Amino acid sequence: MPEIKKLLVANRGEISLRIMRTAREMGIATVAVFSEADRLSPHVMYADEAICLGPAPSSESYLLGDKIIRMAKELGVDAIHPGYGFLSENENFARLVAESGIVFVGPSPESIRVMGSKLAAKQAVAKYNIPLVPGTEEAISDLGEAKKRALEIGYPILIKASAGGGGKGMRVVDNEGEFEEQMQRAVSEAKSAFGDGAVFIEKFITSPRHIEIQVLGDQHGNVVHLFERECSIQRRHQKVIEEAPSAVVSEEMRSAMGKAAVGVAKACDYYGAGTVEFIVDDKLNFYFLEMNTRLQVEHPVTEMITGKDLVREQLKIASGMPLDFKQEDLKINGHAVEVRVYAEDPKNNFLPDIGTLETYKRPQGPGIRVDDGFEEGMTIPIYYDPMIAKLITHAANRESAIDRMLRAIDDYKISGIQTTLDFCKFALTHEAFRSGNFDTKFVENYFSPAVLEPSFESKELELLAALAVEFFTNSEPKSNSQNKKSADTAWRKRLN
Ligand code: ADP
Ligand code: ADP
Ligand code: MG
Questions:
Q1: Which of 154, 177, 203 is the last residue of a domain?
Q2: 126 within some domain
Q3: How far away, in angstroms, is 231 Cα from ligand 2 center?
Q4: What is the model's pLDDT at position 466?
Q5: Is 294 tagged catalytic?
Q6: Distances (CA, A) of 81 to 23, 65, 204, 299
Q7: Residue 276 Cβ < 6 Å to ligand 2
Q8: Measuring CA to CA, which residue among 277, 264, 276, 273 is closest to residue 232?
């Protein structure tokens, strides 16, 4: 059994730190990698050793698999954790790591290959009786044939890149008249973004929820699931708010989805931590979408409700140990919510808003967890995913976990950059979210920049407040700026 004594984390930011924290608890030495843009990042400071990979662009740093392996060997590293994104779902990297005698903290290269292609994944699970979204089972290139199949499936349909990911490579087609143009676009986008033009057709589920199941498998054939995560609040097909458990999943549905997820994992001889994604229609039928063969961004909500440290489990599995608990040992404890704090401007189409964290104060207190990778004064680099932090709350039930999140959002002080926090606050107080009655169209259906603008009335009040402050300060000749400030705060308090 390979013992892991020194771990290199081939990633950056919050996930790199999160992984190293567990490694440290397990007595494992840590090695960070960084690009020139991340030289002073907390993940670099935290590690026992750190190596610079090169200039800021990922292609010249975090994606340099060969260089990372070479450096790992020089430093006597015995395992590499890829985190998420970057090299985490790169079959070739996983293979090269193993070939150089280093443990890859993740599944086998073969599992990554099968699940990395949405089409190969569908084919692999077909014999396991897993429900699939109605659609084509193979890549489709002939236009006439594609049109015929689309008609059989019924509009609206979705054209998807088999190699797609990160919410990219998908096109909705509402009717036959648009099919040809969208198909051509889909193929050329798939080619340029993923280097593989294979596309397929799926029925477009009009009011879908995205619900996924966390699985863990060891190298001895044991696979368990750690319940579901509800990830339906998305923008651009990418998640912003996640929670566990889901408000709509019954005990019966949970066990059916769990069983299907374990089946998907077994279909590719899976070991390690993985996520099986399902799309759920308005009648609560669920269909397999894809499997992510890595640690997921939103894994903390599962950790909060199960009490399991998923990174610890990953490291134990990678070193060959069997799972030391069974399905029936796992129980859901309370409710957890996560909001992703992105450097994005919700008022401007969620476009990245890069700049300096002039103020950065984290919320604290019972049931609050912040996974982040920045400090006050740091600049969010333009080269990578603009996520600043993940804010997670845990409480006895859904209501309290949401209330706790609203308090935590109010206590989170960030200035210098627009973030998704205001949007998350809007979503978490919205009747649709509170009642649990929402789908992936939440943003489209309920959100507009105007909901974040102060209302007309409160703008008028603010004007009155300003006049009052002016009046008090001018009528008291001795008043100093301190007085003015407290009058101002008093008014603001009343306005909030
Ligand atoms: P999760 O389901 O864990 O939220 P995401 O789909 O948001 O995962 O992806 C996690 C990270 O990996 C993001 O930074 C995303 O941009 C990146 N990513 C995922 N798949 C791909 C891909 N095929 N190509 C490029 N980046 C990807
Ligand atoms: P990615 O690899 O980019 O994560 P997924 O297949 O997981 O691709 O889809 C991402 C998101 O797109 C889902 O969470 C869901 O919101 C939406 N989506 C995917 N397939 C469908 C479908 N057939 N009908 C409606 N929405 C879909
Ligand atoms: Mg997905």
A1: 203
A2: no
A3: 11
A4: 77
A5: yes
A6: 10, 12, 35, 15
A7: no
A8: 277
My answer on whether 192 and 220 are in the same domain is: no
Q: Which of 189, 169, 165 is nearest to 86 (CA)?
A: 165
Q: Are residues 159 and 23 in the same domain?
A: no
How do 359-361 and 368-372 pair as beta strands? unpaired
Identify which ligand lies nearest to the alpha carbon of 275. 1
431 and 463: one domain?
no
Q: Hey, which bits of 204-334 come out as E strands?
A: 209-217, 223-235, 238-244, 272-280, 286-292
Q: Are residues 411 and 393 in the same domain?
A: yes
- Considering only CA atoms, which residue is closest to atom 2 of ligand 2? 165
Q: How far is the CA of 237 from the centre of ligand 2 (A)?
A: 7
Nearest CA, atom 9, ligand 1: 166
Same domain, 301 and 284: yes
Tally the domains of the chain: 4
Residue finishing a domain among 145, 175, 203: 203
Handedness of CA 479, 485, 488, 489 (dihedral sign): negative
Pick from 62, 118, 238, 242 the residue to mutate for probing ligand 1's pocket: most ligand atoms within 8 Å of its CB: 238
Question: Which among 11, 7, 5 has a CA at the least distance from the CA of 65?
Answer: 11
Quote the pLDDT of residue 30: 98
Both 491 and 357 in one domain: the answer is no
Of 254, 294, 398, 404, catalytic: 294
Q: Model pTM?
A: 0.89
Phi, psi (degrees; rounded to nearest 5) at 415: -135, 160
Q: 281 with 161, same domain?
A: no
Between the CA of 303 and the centroid of ligand 2 the distance, in Å, is 24
pLDDT of the residue at 456 = 58
Q: Residue 321 domain-assigned? A: yes
Q: Is the peptide bond before 245 cis (omega within 30 degrees of 0)?
A: yes
Residue 239 alpha carbon to ligand 3 centre in Å: 9
Mean per-residue pLDDT pooled into runs of 10, the chain (496 residues): 93 98 98 98 98 98 98 98 98 98 98 95 91 93 92 96 87 95 92 93 96 98 98 94 98 98 97 98 96 98 98 98 98 98 96 95 98 97 96 98 98 98 98 98 96 72 75 56 44 43
Angle between helical axes of 251-267 and 118-126 (0-180°, round to 10) = 100
Q: Is 237 left (phi over 0), alpha (psi -120 to 50) or beta?
A: left
Cβ 268 under 6 angstroms from ligand 1:
no
